[in-house]
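Complex 866.
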Amino acid sequence: MSETTSKGDKTLRSGGRKTLSIGRDTGTVRQSFSGGRSKSVVVEKKRRRVLTPGERGDGHQESAAPAPARPAAPSPAPHQPAPPRPRAETPAPAAPSGRGRSGMVLKTLTEEERGARMQALADARVREAEERQRAEEDARRRAEEEERLAKERAEAQRRKEEEEARKATEAETRRRAEEAARKRLGEEEKAAGRPAPQQPAATGTTEEAPKEIRAVVRPKRPDAAKPAKKTAGGAERRRGRLTVTNALEDADRERSLASIRRKREKEKRQQSGFSPSGEKIIRDVTIPEAISVQELANRMAERAVDVIRLLMKQGTMVKITDILDADTAQLVAEEMGHNVRRVAASDVEEGLFGEPDADEDMHQRPPVVTIMGHVDHGKTSLLDAIREANVVSGEAGGITQHIGAYQVEKNGQKITFIDTPGHAAFTAMRARGAQATDIVILVVAADDGVMPQTIEAINHARAAEVPIIVAINKIDKPEADPNRVKTELLQHEVITESMSGETLEVEVSALKRQNLDGLLEAVLLQSELLDLKANADRSAEGIVIEAELDKGRGPVATVLVQRGTLNAGDILVAGSEWGRARALIDDHGEQVKEAGPSMPVEVLGFQGTPSAGDRVAVVENEQRAREISEYRQRVKREKHAARQTGQRGSLEQMMNQLQTEGTSNVPLVIKGDVQGSVEAIVGALEKISTEEVRANIMHAGVGGITESDITLAAASGAMVIGFNVRANKQAREAAERDGVDIRYYNIIYDLTDDVKAAMSGLLSPERRETFIGNAEILEVFNITKVGKVAGCRVTEGKVERGAGVRLIRDNVVVHEGKLSTLKRFKDEVREVPGGQECGMAFENYQDMRVGDVIECYRVEEVARTL
Ligand code: GDP
Ligand code: MG
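Predicted structure with guanosine-5'-diphosphate bound:
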């Protein structure tokens, strides 16, 4: 199917509007398949038809799909000929695609049936015509009335008015023929007597017959409004749908019995959700920017085969799994007679979050607290101490289940602690655009003072604009020196109360359980200042704090509810996963029915495992949940694919973006080998900052680039600069995953030049560095005449001769240069793949040590085009 396919694919991609318009006539398309086989396909056009009484649509049955699916057609037979006139007119002015098609019921009637019916109805016809007229008159009057009536108007009142209307009609018509009186009698007895003359022809439709008549005469009856009411919701969904009432409202159109019957049947079927008779159901098909053939078929409730066939007729060969663009999908859907609603893919997410709450609905909610600080300063100890001393509902001593967050109670007020200490988790959440935390408790050990991760934590909290409460820990230790901590914090612009600043500080001992109450009181005080509020009376939104795949229970996510109330049984979307909350489990391991704002609960019932930091929202139904998760999974895949093909965010892209957005801050995270160089870089960058553009240094520190630097950069849209330092493996992976650009420099001027050039929009040739591989030094040999040779194992990627190499010790670059030797056993080789051992020596450098890493990279100069 070579030719046809490639042509078709092209068409699909470019929209394919032209190719898809089916010719009017029947024709034959010849298709060649691989292996020289070929096949003729008869192309038929399924057309909407406008039937005139003479035509009746007979002879159109060859139509591919719908034809065999019309066994139900005989049942409408008895009443069908009644309104000969309107049929031709009805479909035309109505919704184009839908109405005409319903006329197709007629065509399966045999001559015999029709004749019989004609006969049977011959005498009834005159009377019916009159009835109809009267019915219409009444209906019109009622329609006008109904327009005035509010929907919610009580049924009783409507009944009363209609009764009056009916009486008026009666008075008017009483003088008329007995026929009229007889008819009304018939109606009031629910058409008990009347259908009789019509029945002979209707084999097996006796049950339906009376209904039909009622359908027409019903408008006269007091309960006439019922059908309209019943379909009110549906009418909104399916704009084209016709109900008895609105059909009759359509002032000067006369409905036929049969057409009304068809409508009613259609409604019935739509309510039951399927079409046993196979009669065409016109659906509103929502078409996103891209849709698979399968999904399109599903949404139209057509067979995928028919979709494929239709496309095949256009010379487009598709498989069931192929993705169609929106234009193509729309044409297919329209060809199949459905109504199309186009949506942008991202529309599926619309309204998922947001909808601000009215002030009066907002009520106080507990603060959510995260504990941060340097390693070993006592974060875990403090979390445990607080939990054990203050668990809500005083389940003292009871083993509480670890669910990633817990609540404690202090002075009758609840406080939620997120039980995953560390700023990595904190910022990872913020990187996804969700802020879980209201207050950060910064733990600083009184015997150790401010350490690198203390500073990191400060910067992370500051970037998130979350207030800090300083917990000076380990005050039980004799060498504790709280004042030193406060002074050191001053240098990082954290001014505590005792230093006449605004940051609350509390001296505690996690080990001795000292002053934990003081800490909690400080939290409550801070939260009062923040005036934290949420509306509990709405559908829930929240954030995934952690999630895992539990062997027994399936995916389990700890969700912190942020607004609204989460109920068991709710349908949730979290990131690209969805699920029905089968059970909610609180921090005591007990099942609960609901969870309000700031309450953490474990949620069971997700289809897949969401990620920490994913935002959670309750949606109205499963379909919506599926749609959103499918959309997000696709976006995720596409992003991943895009990154694989090298479209990562670069400094230039970032600058371009900044310029087009008119942003004047260039966010940077800077890591350097020694304090001196970091200070020099920060100073230099501040110097080159202009009024319009300035370097916004989110964090600057000494040491290798870590995952936490990447998460901070990702959350702030920053780029990471490594000066004589390298990113460790986790950081590299995180950068790859989050699309964070890391740039390495060893000369400050290069760095400042690049940033300056980027800021002014004039970029020097881009020096693109590609990582090739890493080798770890296992042993160092001293070989006479040659000098030192490192015996290495390639741990990542591969190692190439001629490439640039760096010697890295503890993530810091100690030497940069070229290899003089690359050997496998005795032989000089070009490259050594991962996992293998080799010997390496540097040109003019001897000081390698066991444990050092040799990084191998390639540099390309890419000329910048402006
Ligand atoms: P994390 O790394 O920040 O989570 O710190 P940990 O909670 O694991 O604590 C590190 C060490 O400090 C442990 O040996 C604790 O027993 C100890 N520690 C924590 N809090 C205190 C305290 O208030 N006083 C004393 N003396 N030791 C403490
Ligand atoms: Mg710990």
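The pocket of guanosine-5'-diphosphate (ligand 1) is lined by residues 373, 375-381, 421, 473-474, 476-477, 509-511 (CB under 6 Å).
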